[in-house]
UniProtKB/TrEMBL annotation:
Phylogenetic lineage: Bacteria, Bacillati, Bacillota, Bacilli, Bacillales
Domain HAMP: 327-379
A molecular-function term among this protein's GO annotations: kinase activity
Main localization, broad class: membrane
Superkingdom to which the source organism belongs: Bacteria
Protein name: Histidine kinase
Cellular location(s): Cell membrane
Membrane association type: Multi-pass membrane protein
């Protein structure tokens, strides 16, 4: 007979298989994930180090070339007090007033100087020395004055203090051609010429833009796609044609660098990309190599996929093995389950046999023992059921007696008032109060209520002992509202009367004192009766004292009740001296009404 699917899913075989399979899959998943994460980190580190090394080499070469050319610009622009610097300032400041012959002579000297310092400078296309009106002395193929002045950042030149200004790549009309406009792009390094605290001209050197392409594109092409942009403006300086960046991609990349170098992942329109960058201190350009994550992790992803396929294959084999083994293990459990169903149908005569000596075999033996015991218990329960019914009837009848006696005492009290018998009235009232307290179902009462019960008890005992004793109550202020176990003091008071005061030939006294000490409520019952010898006191305090007789069984019960309810350090202590006194002191926790409910 086929079992329902829900039953199969709840079976031990399914749970065992699922647990082992889950453990196996979790282990493989964690292993593959940790390996893939480490491989990814290694690939990122290696790619970052390789790209950073190539960026550093290319950037250092570019900076070296540009700084070498900047030295030419600085020689002419910075006022060092030498002959050529004075000649340059004289040319600019006296251009309109100088004799033409002298002007031509100065121009030739400056031009010869430009030729001498500019020779053999690779990638240098030309050097321009100019005032702010456009009077220029040129060497090589330079960018015209109007073209330079039209550059957006040219206006910064006049406000600078002899610092180099690097104009972003721009077109030199004299080098460009209609066939290939990109051939005319140059980078201009310019410095202001200052005199008397103001800019009077500038020196500008044009560097062929091919220096950037040659240094960077050659070195970094194999590492990934490259992007160079102006760090301040975010404008691209070099962007490979196949980069294919959308405007939002470029904006995302430009906004990320927040240091001189580093790496990060960027989610671009072309896919998730690993970016390695460095910012040049001289050019203020950021060079960035972009490596698609797919190509960066191609080897790791391939190995990961192979590991996952192998894991799936092993998982399938593991499922088959687990199912086979669990079927063998759970076959006997299924037999035991069917036997339990028979027991559930009140068939206690079922018995199962097995030759297995493992834990399942032990369960079979325990099951057979259980069914035999259950049969015996059923017979025993049936034989005692009638007795229990009769006992319940007797218990119900016994519950009537205290209420009947309480009502009868009230009747006696009423008749004593009519007859003027005050002593009978007092005894009836006291006994009625005690019975009312006894019938109260609360396990804890306030100290004031317990004292009322004691007063009622002593009122009755005074008639019995013919006023042979006096009672004094002493309560510390505030203890009356604390809670203590109900009817716990009456056995102590009874012992004081019976064993301490009754044997006296003279009148005795009992003192009931309640006070607080060490965050505990103390209750001391002391009498001036016959007392006890050390041997009697030692025998009374022995653990087995309550089992030796009924003389002081009340003390043992009280001690046991306190220890059971509250544990250490609460309990009962006794001091006594023969023919002088006996004192019994009980200690309780200081409980409010709400706190006492925890012990109910």
């Amino acid at each position: 007979m086929h079992r329902p699917l829900r039953t199969r899913l709840n079976s031990i075989k399914f749970k065992l298989s699922a647990a082992i399979l889950l453990l196996f899959v979790t282990f493989m998943s964690v292993t593959v994930y940790m390996w893939y994460a480490n491989s990814t980190a290694d690939a990122e580190r290696q790619a970052g180090q390789a790209a950073a090394a190539m960026i550093n080499v290319s950037s250092d070469n570019l900076e070296t070339s540009l700084r070498d050319i900047d030295k030419i610009v600085a020689l002419l622009s910075v006022d060092t007090g030498e002959y050529m610097n004075d000649l340059v300032r004289k040319y600019i400041e006296q251009y309109d007033t100088m004799d033409k012959v002298e002007l031509i002579h100065i121009e030739r000297e400056i031009q010869d100087y430009l030729v001498n310092v500019s020779m053999f400078k690779h990638y240098l296309t030309g050097v321009t020395l100019s005032d702010l009106e456009g009077h220029t002395i040129e060497y090589g193929v330079t960018t015209p004055f109007d073209a330079l002045r039209s550059q957006p950042s040219f206006g910064e030149l006049t406000g600078m203090e002899n610092e180099a200004l690097l104009l972003p790549p721009h077109l030199n009309p004299r080098l460009g051609s209609s066939a290939d406009p990109q051939k005319g792009k140059v980078i201009t390094i310019a410095r202001p010429i200052r005199s008397g605290g103001r800019a009077i001209g500038f020196v500008a050197a044009d560097v062929d833009y091919e220096i950037v392409e040659d240094l960077f594109a050659t070195n970094i092409r194999n590492a990934g796609r490259m992007l160079i942009f102006n760090t301040r403006t975010g404008q691209p300086v070099l962007e490979q044609p196949d980069l294919g960046l959308a405007p939002s991609d470029l904006e995302r990349l430009v906004s990320r660098p927040d240091a001189d170098g580093g790496s990060f992942y960027a989610r671009l329109s072309t896919g998730n990309t690993f970016a390695v960058y460095r910012t040049s201190a001289f050019t203020k350009w950021t060079t960035m190599v972009l490596i698609p994550k797919a190509s960066l992790l191609a080897d790791s992803s391939s190995t990961r996929d192979k590991m996952l396929n192998v894991s799936l294959l092993f998982s399938a084999v593991a499922v088959l093995l687990i199912l086979s083994m669990s079927s063998l293990l759970t076959r006997n459990l299924l037999r035991l389950g069917r036997a339990l169903k028979e027991v559930a149908k009140n068939n206690l005569d079922v018995a199962i046999e097995t030759k297995s000596q493992d834990e399942i075999g032990q369960l079979y033996h325990q099951f057979n023992s259980m069914t035999r015991r259950m049969s015996d218990l059923v017979a025993e329960v049936r034989s005692t059921e009638r007795e229990r019914s009769r006992a319940e009837i007797r218990a119900l009848q016994a519950q009537i007696n205290p209420h009947f006696l309480h009502n009868t005492l009230n009747t006696i009290k009423f008749l004593s008032i009519l007859q003027g018998a005050d002593n009978i009235k007092l005894v009836a009232e006291s006994l009625s109060g005690l019975m009312h307290a006894q019938m109260d179902g609360r396990p804890f009462v306030s100290v004031d209520e317990e004292m009322d019960c004691l007063r009622s008890y002593f009122s009755i005992q005074k008639f019995r002992y013919s006023d042979k004793f006096a009672v004094h109550f002493s309560l510390e202020e505030g203890v009356g509202k604390l809670m203590i176990p109900k009817m716990l003091l009456q056995p102590i008071a009874e012992n004081a009367l019976l064993h301490g005061i009754a044997p006296l030939k003279t009148q005795g006294a009992i003192q009931i004192k309640l006070f607080t000490s060490d965050a505990q409520l103390k209750v001391r019952v002391q009498d001036n009766g016959v007392g006890m010898s050390p041997a009697q006191l030692k025998a009374l305090e022995a653990p087995e004292a309550s089992a030796r007789g009924a003389d002081h069984i009340g003390l043992a019960n009280v001690r046991s009740r306190i220890r059971t309810l509250f544990g250490e350090p609460y309990g009962l202590s006794i001091w006594s001296e023969a023919q002088r006194f006996t004192a019994v002191e009980m200690s309780f926790p200081m409980l409010s009404e709400e706190e006492a409910m925890r012990y109910v």
